[in-house]
């Protein structure tokens, strides 16, 4: 009978034995994995290598969002609670001004 495909290439039995041993060791005798670092309790991190301009831009946007939320909340409150919320809003606005000033400095550097 004629075969449409050529015969498979010759394989070295030693290579097959090594491959089989690697496969068996991988599934039946796994190497102990390095201990994972214990979480520090910190939920969020900043990705390494992010440039300063991106960090400052995100800080500015975050402060603007916090400002809008506290402003909305302050107008639903009465009395001393409203004064506290407006004080927090003022601190957020001050932080946003500082962040935007730093962002302007970063943008003007060559």
Describe the structure.
There is one protein chain. This protein has 110 residues and is mostly helical. It has a domain at 52-108. The protein has three helices and no strands. The protein has helices spanning 13-28, 52-74, 79-108. Helix 2 (52-74) runs antiparallel to helix 3 (79-108). The protein starts with 12 loop residues before the first helix and ends with a helix. It comes from Pseudomonas thivervalensis.
Task: List its traits.
110 residues; mainly alpha; 3 helices; elongated; DUF3077 domain-containing protein
Question: Mind telling me the C-alpha Rg?
Answer: 31 Å
- Tell me, rounded to a whole number, the average pLDDT: 83
First-residue to last-residue Cα separation: 77 Å
Describe the main β-sheet briefly: none
- Sum up the overall morphology in one term: elongated
Order of helices and strands: HHH
Based on helices, strands and strand pairing, what is the structural class?
Answer: mainly alpha
Work out the helicity level. 55-70%
**Uncertain spans:** none
What's the helix count? 3
Organism: Pseudomonas thivervalensis
Region (Disordered): 22-41
Pfam families: DUF6124
Protein name: DUF3077 domain-containing protein
